[in-house]
Amino acid sequence: MCVLIHVNMDMNYYCSTKFTDLQVHVQGRLLYNCCKAYPERVNIEWLEANPGKLFHTDTMLEDRKLMLEDKSCVSCHHGCYKYEEQGLSSTRLANKTKEFISNAEAPLKSLTISLSTDCNLTCAYCSPEWSTSWQKDIEKNGNYELTDFKIKNDNFAKLWSKIKQKPRSTESKFFDLLLKEISLAKNLESIIILGGEPLLHNQLEIFLDQIGDKKISIVTGLGVSLSRLSHLLKKIKGKKIKFHVSGETTGSFFEFLRYGISWKDFLTKVKMISDAGFEISFISTMSNISLFDFTNFYNTFHESYNIEINPMSERAFLMPHVIDDRSKDDFIRTSKKYENTKTFQNILGYLTTDVNEIDRSNLGNYVKQFSSRRSIDINFLPEHFRKWCNLS
C-alpha cells in the first residue's frame, strides 16, 4: 500500500516520469518507478501469473493515482519530495516538463536496467547498493558512521558478493521474465543499461542482441581495462548505442570523486569510444566538491559533447550548497563566461540554500573517512574549504 505522508500545500506533487519510466535492479529483483523512487521487490509468482504487468504493479498504480490527485506518496518522498520540502533541488524539479499523463496504466516508454553491481570504482557519490567495490570497502573497513546517516552493506549485498556473476543476474528466473516483459512492451522506446559498471558484465553482448531494435544507451564510468573496452567496441560495431559517461571534474578532483580510474585513462577511453563511431554524452553529478573543477571539465568537453548535470540528492552533505562562501564566490567568478547558459544557471540556483551544521560536520567526516581508507592526500582541496569543514 502507498501511505500518505506530510503534505506541503505549496507543492505540486505530479511527475510525468512516474508514468513513463521504470528502473530494474536485476540482482535484487527491485523495481524503481523512476530513478529516485523507493524500490519495491518483485514477486516472481505474481509476475509469472501477470505477464506484461511489470510496469503496473499495485503499488505503482496507487502512487500514480495519488499523484493525479496532487497528493504525496512514500516512494517519491524518498528521492525528491523530502528535499523539495527543505527548499532544496531534486531530480524531479531538474527534469520537470510540461507533459501531463492522466492514465495510471500508461505504457512503459523508458526502461533502465542494472545488470549487476560489479564495479571496479568507488565513486564518492555511490554506495554498496550499486558497487561491489563499495561493498568490499565496508567489509574491510566497516560502516561509514555520520550524524543521523550511515553507509553500510545490506543483507542482499552480503549475499551477492558470494555468488558468481551469471547466476545472480542474467541466468536468474527473474531475468528471463524481464526479457519477456521487454518483448511485451510494445510502446517501449528506449533501454538504458546501468551497473555497477555494465562494461564489466560478461553477458552484455548477448543481452544487447536479445533486446532487439530499441534505442539503447549504456551508462558507464569506464572502469574497465583498455583491452576489454577495445574488445567490446569491436563486438558491438554497427549497433546504434549511445554511451553516457560519468564525469564532472578533471585531474586530482576526478580521481577523488571517481576513485579507481585515472584522469589519463579516462581521456584515452573517451577517445576510443568516439573514434569507434559511437555517440557520447556526459552525466555530471553536481556536488560541492564538483564545484571546484566543473568549469575545467566543461571547458574540456562542451564544444564536442553534450553535458547533462545531475544534482546530488542522496547525500545531503554532498549537495552543492554545502560549501563555504569563498568557494561559492570562486565558482561564480571562474564560471562567469557561462553564466547565461542553462547548465550554469541551474548550478547557481543550487547554491542559494543555507548550510546547516550537521551537513557541514558530516561532509568533513565523510571526506576524512573516504580519503583515509584509500590513502588519498586531500591537499588538492582548497585550504579554506578544508578549514571550513574541519579537515585541517
Taken from the alpha-carbon principal axes, the silhouette is globular
Query: What letter string, H or E per element, gives the SSE order?
Result: EEEHHHHEEHEEHHEHEHEHEHEHEHHHH
Largest sheet: 9 strands, mixed
Rg, alpha carbons = 21 Å
How many beta-strand elements?
13
* The CATH architecture of the largest domain: Alpha-Beta Horseshoe
The first-level CATH class of the largest domain is given as: Alpha Beta
Beta-strand percentage range: 5-15%
CATH superfamily heading of the largest domain: pyruvate-formate lyase- activating enzyme
SSE class = alpha/beta
Distance between the termini: 48 Å
The CATH topology of the largest domain comes to pyruvate-formate lyase- activating enzyme
In spatial order, strands of the major sheet run 3-2-1-4-8-9-10-12-13
Q: Unreliable stretches, pLDDT < 50, 5 or more residues?
A: 1-9
Number of domains: 2
Q: Determine the mean pLDDT.
A: 90
Task: Determine the number of helices (DSSP H or I, runs of at least 4 residues).
Answer: 16
> Fraction of residues in helices?
25-40%
Describe what this molecule looks like in 3D.
There is one protein chain. This protein is α/β, with parallel strands linked by helices and 392 residues long. The protein folds into two domains: 16-108, no CATH class; 112-388, pyruvate-formate lyase- activating enzyme, CATH 3.80.30.10. The protein contains 16 helices and 13 strands. It has helices at residues 44-49, 58-68, 74-84, 91-94, 132-141, 155-160, 173-184, 204-210, 226-235, 251-257, 263-275, 294-301, 325-334, 342-350, 357-373, 383-388; strands at 21-25, 30-32, 40-41, 110-114, 122-123, 144-146, 149-151, 190-194, 215-220, 241-246, 258-259, 279-286, 306-311. Strands 3-2-1-4-8-9-10-12-13 form a nine-stranded mixed β-sheet. Strands 5-11 form a two-stranded antiparallel ribbon. A two-stranded antiparallel ribbon has the order 6-7. Helix 9 (226-235) links the parallel strand 9 (215-220) and strand 10 (241-246). The protein is globular. Mean pLDDT is 90; it is low at 1-9.
